[in-house]
Amino acid sequence: MTSVPETTTPGEIRLLIVDDDSEIRAELGAYLSAHFFWVQTAANGAEAERLLADREFDIILLDLWLGNESGFDLLRRLRQTHSTPCIMVTAQDEVTDKIVGLELGADDYLVKPVNLRELLARIRALIRRSGASEDNGAPPVASSDTDGGTNWKFDAMRRCLRAPDGTPVPLTTAECDLLIELVSKEGLPQTRNELCRRVFNREWNPYDRSLDGIIVKLRRKLEPNPENPLVIKTVRGRGYVFTGFAQ
Question: pLDDT (tens digit, 9 = 90+) per residue, 205-227?
Fold first, then answer.
């Protein structure tokens, strides 16, 4: 079980991952944390119930099989005291399991191996349905300027980008996903392979120009001079780095 920080950042979506596989907990935790979720993990039902007794969560991601325990049993106990939205995950695509899980109070269902982009989309959809985003939407990531004027504003949870004059800047799904990855690691160079894995859920290869094409489109929307990029810089031999919105 991960340690519990003293406080969360105001507005963060609080997500609990319950899975007996430590590698899966680490992978999902890292991915969702990078997308502005406050993540805690538990390896079994007892750990999950202790965390839920200590604080409120907005979403629970619950594995169906927790070693010697069934996720169904845990969900049945949780529904006696908690109405927290829950997505169940299983390694078996069995209709009966889905029906039982939904009847016990699960809100959605995913089959392993989990596609990370699909998981993120389902979590966001569940947040919208439950109304959590109205009160606990992730804080916007915005540039600062020294003149006290307006800034670029990027709300990752609501997937909304606004120019300094307040005009909405339309983003495709891929553009928004890539911008989230870049902004979440501002100042840190990211390789093409890292970005492809997290945005497209596949390995990068030198003949695949999809990533570079989206970078070009983002630069046209974000850069004062796309031919001389300062917001999304190329790191020769590595990939790209987001340096902050233009001022």
Answer: 888 788 999 999 999 999 999 99
**Is the Cβ–Cβ distance between 151 and 164 less than 8 Å?**
yes
Peptide bond into 113 cis (omega under 30): yes
- Per-residue pLDDT tens for 102-159? 777 888 888 888 888 888 888 888 887 766 544 444 444 444 343 444 588 888 767 8
DSSP 202: S
Give residues with Cβ within 8 angstroms of 123, minimum separation 6: 15, 32, 37, 59, 61, 87
| pTM for this model (two decimals) | 0.56
Q: Is residue 247, in this structure, part of any structural domain at all?
A: no
For residue 42, what is the domain's CATH number? 3.40.50.2300
Q: Provide the sign of the torsion angle of the four alpha carbons 162, 125, 219, 34, taken in this order.
A: positive
Tell me which residue range forms the domain holding 210.
141-242
On whether residue 67 sits in a domain, the answer given is: yes
Q: How far apart are CA 82 and CA 75, in angstroms?
A: 9
- Measured distance between the N- and C-terminal CA atoms of the chain, rounded to whole angstroms: 42
Q: Is residue 187 part of a domain?
A: yes
Considering the domain boundaries, does residue 2 fall inside one? no
Structural contact between residues 123 and 15, judged by C-beta atoms closer than 8 angstroms = yes
